[in-house]
Amino acid sequence: MSQQSSSQSGEQRISMLKVLNPFHIWALGVGIVLVGEFMGWNFSVAKGGAYGALIACWVIGLLYSCVAMIDSEVTSTVAAAGGQYTQAKHIIGPLMAFNVGLYLVMAYTMLEAADALIVGDLMAAVASATGFHDLSPQPFVVLTISFLAWLNYRGVFMTLTVNFVITLFAFLAILALFIGADPLNPGHILKHSDLLTELPYGWIGVVAALQFGMWYYLGIEGTCQAAEEVRSAGRAIPLGTIGGILTLLVAATLTWYISTGLMPWQYLGQATTPLYDAASIIGNPVLQVVLFIGTMFAAIASANGCINDAARAWFSMGRDRYMPTWFGAIHPRYRTPFRSIIFLIPIAVSFAFTGLLDQVITFSILSGLLGYTFMSINMVKFRKMWPLDVIKRGYIHPFHPIPAYTLLGLCSLVYFATFLGYGASLLSIMAFYIVASVWFVKRRYQFVKRGDQFTMPWPRPKGY
């Protein structure tokens, strides 16, 4: 790729480098999510019991399979930084694009804060175990976010190569735990026949478990943020995204199987680090070390990917004047959205310092859920405006419009599940986005140049 690209006015502007391949996309998507296999998913057990958590795992897995298919088609066609935000401005309009961009930034920044808080708590626990009692996790939070922001500042290729290595280790740690649990000899280590019970709270508990079932897969849609930096969007985005969701489906099922065979649901539903606890129960010291490192790597990989994605969404909004254009700058040497990366650091640290892990996670989940709701509408509109024979697509997902309508229905169900447990949070978050929309219409829309937004060489939409 040339190091500079021409703008419509004839000026030269710096562009991001096209250096990523499908493995980097896989590392970005799976890296953000895999921490959910190490912790967080198990709160669905507290809501619906062991079987309820398995149902939530597969139902939400269907939701994210629809997300992966839709993202693969639209992003391989609209191959630009900003992902779903860029899709919204081309297909629906400015107000939707602003909201989707904000959903992305808030979802990833909140998830980054939660990941850093997890790293800080784990490091503080290790320090306590080695004699350094009452050590605050906050310095580790700042150190984690600062180091990963520096890594992102220096270049996307190095950032996602590191993510690939540590994400692969974390995934292999789950496989090692599965092998260590001796699954071929039921009853030897795994005690499913003794531990599995009926649904403790009935089907309403299963519905409530859907909210935390999101934790198995939350963030896989982040693969879209790298669309402007891949060598071939039509190849890398579908392979990386669909390969990522298949990886997560396997990891989620193995995680449930191992954990529910070793711990009663009453304990599992409130455990902080269920996979590490599982390794401790097996009693293999090597497995314990591997799972501790895997837990740390999963949290670091997630935070690393979140910084990458949040910065690119914020950068894209600045480039299009939805936010001050100061944020739309690319570093002349490293070709990264360096101002957006730096700007979001104190926001993530501030939310991590609250220590309110469940509230931060809920904000991230609901912001992501609002984005998924948009995707279903966006996909139907995209196919109507530009049918298959009108523009070239890098990938065409099958069974349209079934995935879009399935996604919309499952999102509605998860909204209800979230309302059951966090109704006040749901209403306050919705109020926040409504106020932000009013601010955009009243204060920021006047700076948006709509004609500059339509960068794809597409014919006039059908019906327009």
TrEMBL record:
<feature type="transmembrane region" description="Helical">
    <location>
        <begin position="23"/>
        <end position="43"/>
    </location>
</feature>
<keyword id="KW-1133">Transmembrane helix</keyword>
<keyword id="KW-1003">Cell membrane</keyword>
<feature type="transmembrane region" description="Helical">
    <location>
        <begin position="160"/>
        <end position="181"/>
    </location>
</feature>
<dbReference type="InterPro" id="IPR002293">
    <property type="entry name" value="AA/rel_permease1"/>
</dbReference>
<feature type="transmembrane region" description="Helical">
    <location>
        <begin position="239"/>
        <end position="258"/>
    </location>
</feature>
<feature type="transmembrane region" description="Helical">
    <location>
        <begin position="91"/>
        <end position="111"/>
    </location>
</feature>
<feature type="transmembrane region" description="Helical">
    <location>
        <begin position="336"/>
        <end position="354"/>
    </location>
</feature>
<feature type="transmembrane region" description="Helical">
    <location>
        <begin position="201"/>
        <end position="218"/>
    </location>
</feature>
<feature type="transmembrane region" description="Helical">
    <location>
        <begin position="424"/>
        <end position="441"/>
    </location>
</feature>
<dbReference type="GO" id="GO:0055085">
    <property type="term" value="P:transmembrane transport"/>
</dbReference>
<feature type="transmembrane region" description="Helical">
    <location>
        <begin position="360"/>
        <end position="380"/>
    </location>
</feature>
<dbReference type="Pfam" id="PF13520">
    <property type="entry name" value="AA_permease_2"/>
</dbReference>
<protein>
    <submittedName>
        <fullName>Amino acid transporter</fullName>
    </submittedName>
</protein>
<keyword id="KW-0812">Transmembrane</keyword>
<dbReference type="InterPro" id="IPR050367">
    <property type="entry name" value="APC_superfamily"/>
</dbReference>
<feature type="transmembrane region" description="Helical">
    <location>
        <begin position="49"/>
        <end position="70"/>
    </location>
</feature>
<dbReference type="GO" id="GO:0016020">
    <property type="term" value="C:membrane"/>
</dbReference>
<feature type="transmembrane region" description="Helical">
    <location>
        <begin position="289"/>
        <end position="315"/>
    </location>
</feature>
<feature type="transmembrane region" description="Helical">
    <location>
        <begin position="135"/>
        <end position="153"/>
    </location>
</feature>
<keyword id="KW-0472">Membrane</keyword>
<feature type="transmembrane region" description="Helical">
    <location>
        <begin position="401"/>
        <end position="418"/>
    </location>
</feature>
